[in-house]
Queue: 2 jobs
Job 1
Amino acid sequence: MSGSEYRDVVRLENIQMHYGNVQALSDINFAVGRNEIVGLIGDNGAGKSTLIKIMTGVERPTAGNLYIRDKKVDWEGYSVGRAHELRFETVYQEKSLGEKQPLWRNFFVGRQITNRLGFIKVKQQKQIANDVLLNQIGFRGAGIDADSPVAQLSGGERQGVAIGRAMHFDSDLIVLDEPTVALAITEVRKVLDFVRGIKESGRACVYIEHNLAHVHELADRLVVLDRGRVVREIHKGEMSLAELTSALIDLQHAKVETAEAGS
Amino acid sequence: MSGSEYRDVVRLENIQMHYGNVQALSDINFAVGRNEIVGLIGDNGAGKSTLIKIMTGVERPTAGNLYIRDKKVDWEGYSVGRAHELRFETVYQEKSLGEKQPLWRNFFVGRQITNRLGFIKVKQQKQIANDVLLNQIGFRGAGIDADSPVAQLSGGERQGVAIGRAMHFDSDLIVLDEPTVALAITEVRKVLDFVRGIKESGRACVYIEHNLAHVHELADRLVVLDRGRVVREIHKGEMSLAELTSALIDLQHAKVETAEAGS
Amino acid sequence: QSSDKPLGDGMVMYMQMGGNAGDGATLARTTGARDAAKAFGLQLIEQYSAWQPETMLNHFREGMAASPACIGIMGHPGSDAFADLVDEAREAGIVVTSGNAPLTELYNKHQAGGFGYAGVDLFTGGYITGKSMADQGLQKGDKALVYGLLSEAERGQSTLGLKTALEEAGVTVDYLEISPEVNSDSSLVVPILAAYLANNPDVKAIGTQHGGVTAFIPKALEDSGKKPGDVVVGGIDLAPATIDGLEEGWISTVLDQQLYLQGFLPVTQCVLSAKYGFTGLFTNTGSGTVTPKTIGALVPLIEKGIR
Amino acid sequence: MVLAPNVFLGYRIYMSFLITVPPILLLALGLTLVIAAGEIDLSFPSVIAFSGFLFAYLFKTYELTWLALLAALAGGALIGFVNGILVAGIGVPSIIATLAMQFFWGGITTVLSGGLSYNIRAVKETALWEVFVGRIGVLPVQSLWVLALAIFLWFLLNRHRFGEHLLFIGDSAKVARVVGIPVNRERIKLFTLMGVLAAFAAVLLTLENKNFFNTQGQGFLLIALAAVFIGGTSIFGGQGSIVGSFFGAFIIVMIEAGLVASGIQGFWVRAVVGLVFIGAVIFHLLVENPGRLAALRRLLRRDG
Amino acid sequence: MVLAPNVFLGYRIYMSFLITVPPILLLALGLTLVIAAGEIDLSFPSVIAFSGFLFAYLFKTYELTWLALLAALAGGALIGFVNGILVAGIGVPSIIATLAMQFFWGGITTVLSGGLSYNIRAVKETALWEVFVGRIGVLPVQSLWVLALAIFLWFLLNRHRFGEHLLFIGDSAKVARVVGIPVNRERIKLFTLMGVLAAFAAVLLTLENKNFFNTQGQGFLLIALAAVFIGGTSIFGGQGSIVGSFFGAFIIVMIEAGLVASGIQGFWVRAVVGLVFIGAVIFHLLVENPGRLAALRRLLRRDG
Ligand SMILES: Nc1ncnc2c1ncn2[C@@H]1O[C@H](COP(=O)(O)OP(=O)(O)OP(=O)(O)O)[C@@H](O)[C@H]1O
Ligand SMILES: Nc1ncnc2c1ncn2[C@@H]1O[C@H](COP(=O)(O)OP(=O)(O)OP(=O)(O)O)[C@@H](O)[C@H]1O
Ligand SMILES: [Mg+2]
Ligand SMILES: [Mg+2]
């Protein structure tokens, strides 16, 4: 599938998103190339999560078009399940684990390993889940295994499971909405290594993060959202971390001033 | 109340915590002085959140004692409400906002401004809530005011509200469990300033954070938890940030090795 | 052959009582059965089915499993539903007898084995009520409301009898079905009847064979601004409120099923047939109506749950 | 209503509603609070029977009036308190606990009353009767009582600390604990209040009927719940509409009466009640969120 | 059971349970899935009536047997599908939608059947009868059918993709959407399945009784729900115990039969059923979590 010819893994065109009266996104154009890591940054409430939710089939925009591998996709047929089939993988900011369900179910839900009748191969799933938990994520916590329900996990452990899941299903586009939140230092490093690995293996990634040091280092291109609009694009090497930081802070000050002037 | 004589705002003695078979905390001793900022660090699942939940009345430990302002407190009578009365304020890692409720209710719930019959002074509450939202937290998001329900907020906005609430009720002890998670740069700065302000106004704070740069700078004393035990205490100036970081990473390696040796 | 021991000593009888323990159409039956059980010294096991026919069938199966001397059944599920079960019970030597709604086919087949009946013929009961209403001054062409439960095949027979009698008298009949909520809690009938009365101010008579509904008709009439006697009311069973209604003249006539007998007689039948092999008796427990004139004497008994 | 204009133009039918609705409304108001707190109470039909029995028995046997009222309310409070202990103290989900208690107290009532109904006609001569179910002109007094209570409960839910606590508990009991609400004590209070309201409904009903029926209350189960849901209170908790339940109670009582008055044939009434019921709720939903219809259309093709 | 040893030592009473329990068990099994998915279905009593009517009518009028069975199942599927559309498509909470549909289909059944019951004794001569409710020796065949279905549904819930989807939907519909489960389509399937199971229960009941009763099914509402809850399935969704419901259905049927057989006076039965019910659930809870009692003690002093 990844062998076929296309330029952008995903492209959003003129996206609008209203929640009732709140306009979360206005006229967004956003594309992710084949082997590109795009950092999405911006203030709280800028619309970052909304944008990726639209991109991955959780929400439907009020207007706009979606192209996947340069082909237009009908919103009607688009959903998280469909995105999975199209080899998009996402770690959402909101909780995405079933609290009462054991880890082995959470790991594979929506993409179970089944026989032809749809019955789940439990043993196999547990084995893989345990393997990922111990070796890839590297849990050493007391008594956590594939059978533990999510409700027993600490905040960081949950985040770890969600990311481990995304790591496992090795996809063409990986979307990460603040993945390092709640993680301890070594785990943060693992995530950063993982993102580097995406790039190396020729795949693409959208990476949302408030820690500018991380995005600045990793991203090929930074897209800055502000109050529902793309206000800036910055290519790798265009700015130093310090310049980037002050540019963003300036942006916010400007915002406050226009808001005050407007009122 | 803060005028009376005491040494530690809060002291936990020989705390044990079991969740079923999982031992989350074993024999913890932990104290916070009158005007001290204690940084609590450690791996995911180390037991940090559990410890502060016990300290602030959410959970009851399996064994151990609690002293507040040097007086022993009976667990039976201890609860989050009681902790509020004792002027403890907490920002929890888990969600602590009622999704369907407007912000003005979330702001004051548990500590409503009422008349003598218990009826809420809605106008006054809304005014204060709006003030805190706009001026203290500094929300500029589209259409967010005291009447918006929490369900409409972005991840960072929620975190902002929880912290704004803690900032407002100016307490003797403020407990922050990963408060900067999900916040944008300027907001992070505000939180850090807030913590500094706690110190300056002579109050105490327990600060949990995976970002070592932040805790290293702010804390008077760092307490390192590992698998439910206090493994290290580090006083301000004892280590540089780099030393601290490598010390923690060493700790984790040691852990992996003992675990492997043990199995 | 007689001894010191009572006649039914050592016998067990499973008996279906009808609705719910203590409801108006059930209580006097329970009282009668208990009195008879005490008198004959047999052990009575009461089964309440909330008037659900399928529950009655299940109760029969459970009763049969205990191999009692007799089983008393309600007629509601019908002869066909009970046929195989009763055959089976007879083979096992259990005496079966029936009440409240007749099972003619089974009666004919098993009478010799002690299958009796104690109750009114439901259709006839309704018919008598209707006749009695017509006799209280209804004219040809008058309009009457029949409020009943035609959706329940057996209980519906009494409604049908009522309707038939009124129609034979030349009265125009409107029919309304009792909803399950009203069926279980009759106070809900008041606004429904009030609405009907407001829309049909010319209605001359209201008839029902539902005990609970009967008790609330006076209230509905009062709330609709009627006076006692404006509307001819025919009902069934002597609930305390119904007695009031009779005494105050709101209710014109009430069928008295003599439910107590429907409890007492099946127990008697059981003992006699099980002990001495008597054949089944077909007893009509009620062919009379109570009117404002005749109510006075009954009140003390009614308050004890006997009449 | 449109189909039977002459009925709904007269005042009498409304007066009859003002007699029938109050007990149901009381139940619906109490249930609104319970459901807003994310709980449910199925035991109230038995409170109607039990408290009604206490009242009628004490009146008939000892000629108590105000004390009988107090005893009835205390009986309701007791049942509610037991529910609260089961739910909050022991942790039995409320739907199960209150269902079991409905059986239990219903059975106890039958045992205590010996299955008998009581006629308490003499109550009409008491001051109690005048105060609670008398008439001012043609207006039944009980309608004023429930109106006052509805207003009070509106303030309790929307403006009082207790109501706010209920809303948060219904939103998420976990969050409620964390913000310092004494979750379990509030739950016990809530069920007790519900018990008292149901007991008051029982007294109104018994007074108005001047009779205690052994089976009274059983028909109210679905009707009172339906009133709450028609009124727009969500089963998911965290939100409750006192005003909605107020109108819901009238609507649910008027539906069947309205259909009957419109001359719809006997057997059809129930099917039409079902249709009107679902229609009202869907109308509600579509008004609140017009996007639903589009969503429905989409669904039938491929799911989101 | 202890109180009436002679009854419960004989095998006959158990054979009688093997006739009584199957329809209730089918309903309880279906409800287990529904409740595990965080929904509820209150419409099944009307499916018992509606599908029973279809079956009896087609058999009586056209002498259809297997086709009548198919029609009955299709009728149940239709009702379930409509429920699903209301809940998943339009977004009506299931408790309201299915309650309204209970009214509606119950009413429709009365209208269609003209309020009549049907006697279909001739069905005893058909192969259909032998296959579904015949006897192997003394063993009622329907007990084998429901046993097989219980095993199948256990695998469906615990080992099949569909069951896992239901568990996640019940856990949190939001999470379920985000992990790529077609939430609404699965809900529609679920309600349809429940409708088919209830229809099968209707056929078993109608065949066994050789009669269709217009009001059949109404008594099953509380019993089937109680079986599920006694079995330990949580009302909060995300978890369901097929095995628990299996035993729950037997327990609930046996409680009443046992009490009746033990000679407890009729009036007491209801109260004792309530006590046994709550006792069983509390026992469950305490075994699972012995800390509860301490919590209760604490509560009565000061709340956590
Ligand atoms: N309710 C619970 N039931 C069972 N185990 C639990 C429960 N809550 C926490 N634990 C376990 O206790 C341990 C400590 O959890 P805690 O939340 O205190 O960790 P933490 O130090 O805050 O981690 P993080 O940095 O990831 O937030 C973890 O291993 C967790 O799995
Ligand atoms: N369901 C909703 N209803 C109404 N408004 C919403 C909803 N979801 C998001 N919003 C609003 O849309 C805006 C954008 O939200 P979004 O979650 O995309 O922000 P974000 O950039 O991800 O912020 P953060 O960094 O805090 O996560 C916010 O102002 C938020 O209040
Ligand atoms: Mg976000
Ligand atoms: Mg934590």
Job 2
Amino acid sequence: MSQADAGGSSPDRAVRDPATTLRCEPPAIGGFRPPGRVFNGSGTFDALAALEVFGDALLASFPFDVYVSKTITLAPRPGNPPPRIAECAIGMLNSIGLPNKGVERFLREELPRLARLPVPLCVSVMGFSRQELAELVARVGERGEVAALELNVSCPNVETGLVVGQDPAETARAVERVRPLTEKPLIVKLTPTAADQAAVARAAQAAGADAVSLVNTFPGTAFDARGSALLGPGRGGLSGPAIKPIALAQVREVATAVSLPVIGMGGICETTDAREYLAAGASFVAVGTASFRDPLAGLAIRRALAAEGQESPAKRAIV
Amino acid sequence: MSQADAGGSSPDRAVRDPATTLRCEPPAIGGFRPPGRVFNGSGTFDALAALEVFGDALLASFPFDVYVSKTITLAPRPGNPPPRIAECAIGMLNSIGLPNKGVERFLREELPRLARLPVPLCVSVMGFSRQELAELVARVGERGEVAALELNVSCPNVETGLVVGQDPAETARAVERVRPLTEKPLIVKLTPTAADQAAVARAAQAAGADAVSLVNTFPGTAFDARGSALLGPGRGGLSGPAIKPIALAQVREVATAVSLPVIGMGGICETTDAREYLAAGASFVAVGTASFRDPLAGLAIRRALAAEGQESPAKRAIV
Amino acid sequence: MGRTAAAKSGQEGPPTVRPGKSEWPRRVTAPPGRRRARVLCNRAAGRYRLIEVDDDAGPRRPTPGQFYMLASAEGWLGDDGRPWLARPFSHVRSEPLAFLIDPVGPGSRRLAALQAGQGVHLVGPLGQGFRPPATGATALLVGGGIGIAPLGALAQRLGGACEALLGFKDALAAEAAALVAARRVALATDDGSLGHHGLVTDLLARRLEAGGAFELFACGPEPMLRAVAEAARAANVPAQLAFEAPMACGFGACFGCAFETQAGWMRLCLEGPVVDARDLP
Amino acid sequence: MGRTAAAKSGQEGPPTVRPGKSEWPRRVTAPPGRRRARVLCNRAAGRYRLIEVDDDAGPRRPTPGQFYMLASAEGWLGDDGRPWLARPFSHVRSEPLAFLIDPVGPGSRRLAALQAGQGVHLVGPLGQGFRPPATGATALLVGGGIGIAPLGALAQRLGGACEALLGFKDALAAEAAALVAARRVALATDDGSLGHHGLVTDLLARRLEAGGAFELFACGPEPMLRAVAEAARAANVPAQLAFEAPMACGFGACFGCAFETQAGWMRLCLEGPVVDARDLP
Ligand SMILES: Cc1cc2nc3c(=O)[nH]c(=O)nc-3n(C[C@H](O)[C@H](O)[C@H](O)COP(=O)(O)OP(=O)(O)OC[C@H]3O[C@@H](n4cnc5c(N)ncnc54)[C@H](O)[C@@H]3O)c2cc1C
Ligand SMILES: Cc1cc2nc3c(=O)[nH]c(=O)nc-3n(C[C@H](O)[C@H](O)[C@H](O)COP(=O)(O)OP(=O)(O)OC[C@H]3O[C@@H](n4cnc5c(N)ncnc54)[C@H](O)[C@@H]3O)c2cc1C
Ligand SMILES: Cc1cc2nc3c(=O)[nH]c(=O)nc-3n(C[C@H](O)[C@H](O)[C@H](O)COP(=O)(O)O)c2cc1C
Ligand SMILES: Cc1cc2nc3c(=O)[nH]c(=O)nc-3n(C[C@H](O)[C@H](O)[C@H](O)COP(=O)(O)O)c2cc1C
Ligand code: FES
Ligand code: FES
């Protein structure tokens, strides 16, 4: 592609100055207007655990403008066999396997406690069939604590065997199915392995999604000196700065293809990284793996972006 | 994917000890038996330029067992507008754009000089239509200096608009078309953005390919502080250690899908990296970007792998 | 989890009476975020390095058994792109906060090379530390190799009111035993160059045979810990074991440190690293 | 390419007779592969750092204008994963080999911080250096800022038989002018703190007006080089200009350093960095 770029619709270098983006108010996601631009990546910050470890001091310096839960499934999941993580060149592989208590206990035990957080909540859900997804959306969507839902479509559809997010039609059917079940905004988290990211994003938009987020982790693996995979299930998902250039290209492609707000992520560690995503066309960014290295990595970015926004003539109040 | 791994055919951690692989002779690629396991990545080592710069000393310490030319097209190409390269976290983006003199001058001016190299030659070609590709294969294949051809199928087919290597059927048609035109071994260099890498590899095998090589660079981009893309055409291809975990997963998937020899590459800098590719199922490896940092990066790997092979009971003579 | 799981499984309780409420909090809350501390000194301790840091911004009394996520403030990323994540280390002493580091890989080697005056990023203290021994029981600290680190902090907190059985590879490694300030210390080495020629669990078996009201506190390689748990079960004495798992975050964010107990998988960084022997599956 | 392209395009030749064969090779062949050299010293030179290295394994007399790809042997990769590739630097002196480094980004800053005794990886000498001035012509060296680096090597090779016009930001930066050992040196600064208050091209215009058989050798920011080329064309004197381009490899492998000449795109690392003004498009 890069080698030839012949015939393709090669994007140009045209400048989308992040400073200009920041001077405007962040767009609404359906009926939800995020109070700032920094989310966390789903599954990379357990706010309840963090509150236990860091105490209420965390509330005063909460690193994100919107909190996204880890992905919740209908039934409880124990997660994958260890080892579940392996470090690689400026990034990491994970094969966590979505451990969670299932939606029942999540709604009963975790959601009320998450409501203590000083920021709006977004709940990530994944269903292994459209029926499962529908049930999840209906149940989560009716809860007052929830500002928005994120549909993690990286799972294989048990009926078709296709990974939902890899196929525009599958994605559209999933979103169409759940769209009538809630008034809450729906964010579709795209799968980075789709052959045509833009087509999947357009399908999500046409089916009624209110925003798209990307990227999820890239399938990857690593081996030790004896040839044994470093992860329990043999492979995992790559995250961290290593993936940033690829993620930026995908965000740019998607942001050009849809008129929905885009939440960009992949390797964001510093404010300059976040600004690159804004340049690529994202309206929001999410901090993932960087929080593992510094639980407050998001805070510096949150503050920097808010401060830059406030320098605008139309000053906005951001906490 | 990595998060769920439900229903998918998740590869296990089963050990394929690189030492065991190395004790066996490298497999033949069609009628061609490479004298060792280390290739260069096409387009990452201009042996003629290197001979000018380093003189004949380079011949005595040639870093590869097989030399692969940069990709040659039918017509001359000037390449893309600068800037053509940008560094990113432990990797680089390039948008070189396949500058080359065209097949005519390549065969007349460069091939005879490449024949001075102490190792067999493989010529990489790319056609923007099946007709172009056929002409390239016929003309390059008839030359005695050439041990094998690599088909770079990362280009969009001008008739269908599809990127050939992203689609199993397109790939099959391209290989079927050129297969009868030469007896020389054909290596198909896969595109890393195919939705189903394994299907493309199987299609190449069914159509008569003798080996597959992967990965090519991943589409990526980067922006400066003002939001301007760091590369002339707005995006480029990512290479270097950053992509290694993703490339390893693709090599493993492909090696499981086909019985052809696999040439694995992506971020190989040290012998340990090369061994990871052997563990993933590759029979050969290629050194790309690492040569930019050290022109003889390949030599250390070539020597180490050869030495390990010679420790086997059935000692082989490798230069 | 914790005792609940063991209780549910109907195992025997400890032989001595436990205080209703432990005297130390098992967990001391950490300041949120990563802070920078200055390295005060770096000196050899047997085959390991002892690094003292000036952690003014951190809590004064982390619980023995708690750990910190460490990364050098500069030059952390190595030439091959690793280490990138921080690495978990138990504190071997508080006031000043100190770590005992075995240079086994890129991250620990970088930390072991820190010079006085250089900066180190730290998050912590993290995890659940040791509970104090029940009144009347003799605290028996069982350590293997670098596993003596949290036992150093424990002996310090107990004011030396404990016994230690420590196993090492050889006499050189065993020099680090000086960091465990117990009333009585018995050593074992793999090569017999100092103390008992053999395993530290041999010493433990002998000590338990001799009899008395013991409570075990162990840290070391996993097989050693499993053997200690087995010995504790057989002798019907309580045992608290400090385990290891790969950790990306240390504060419950990544779910990477899965550890199996009777109640299922748990996050070792949150519910451990100190695990009650009776909770093992 | 080189003269051929210009010749084809029918431009005027130089006013003075060129020697049939240049006295220096434009390119000195480099040993293949990256070698490690020891840093001998690192000292300030105005706003830049002068780094001398002990390059025993390299050729003794690189041609002025040739460059080396440099990377520190340890601690090259920064915490954000850059620098990863080596960086191109002209030698400012040979015997001992020395570089003048302007710390503008992660790579140059790391190199500028190298300490005596530390290692530096180098590949080189690379590229086509300057051709010696034709007999009878006065070599006029025109440098801007860090662009004085290759002119230092050139003045050294000419044994001082040249004049230099050097422009800097301010007097502090201008201290580096001492490295250009020319018979006569005229300075300009942007802030007027030393020498002419203005551009070095002002000095050049005056010198050319004064008349004489000149040959220009220039290195500096691209706009300066374009202006020098223009002045040379107008005055009908030959000019050799050392340009810059982003370089991943330095030896023709990556095709990243595309540079436009009358003959089309060329690789600046192979056919440059010294370009004849008449070959510019
Ligand atoms: C709670 C806790 C407390 C610890 N306290 C100390 C201490 O006080 N002193 C000390 O020297 N070390 C301690 N460790 C171990 C230390 O964290 C590892 O040695 C370190 O992370 C290795 O990193 P590395 O980059 O040097 O090597 P890596 O390349 O990361 O690892 C080197 C080798 O160690 C293995 N390994 C890495 N991390 C772990 C792990 N967490 N558990 C098991 N095997 C692992 C790898 O598989 C590899 O074989 C502790 C670990 C934990 C979980
Ligand atoms: C043949 C050659 C000889 C050189 N000789 C010297 C020398 O003697 N002394 C010296 O200090 N510098 C010299 N340079 C420039 C030096 O290579 C760059 O300053 C260095 O690569 C910057 O790397 P960095 O990591 O510090 O900054 P980067 O982050 O890579 O770059 C910092 C800034 O400089 C720009 N930049 C980077 N590289 C180049 C380039 N090659 N050309 C133009 N802009 C660039 C970037 O766009 C960015 O704005 C030379 C360059 C070339 C091509
Ligand atoms: C340990 C780990 C767990 C993750 N769990 C989830 C998850 O439950 N749901 C989800 O949509 N994405 C999950 N992700 C993906 C992240 O949300 C994010 O998309 C990805 O890590 C890229 O961002 P980063 O490079 O900033 O980490 C997980 C990533 C990591 C590293
Ligand atoms: C500057 C550059 C030029 C390249 N040119 C070609 C090319 O002409 N043909 C091709 O098939 N691959 C080309 N590639 C891809 C490499 O052959 C290789 O597949 C890729 O870089 C991954 O390997 P690496 O990480 O070791 O570099 C190029 C890569 C780079 C960095
Ligand atoms: S180390 Fe991340 S959850 Fe335990
Ligand atoms: S720098 Fe690589 S070809 Fe010139």
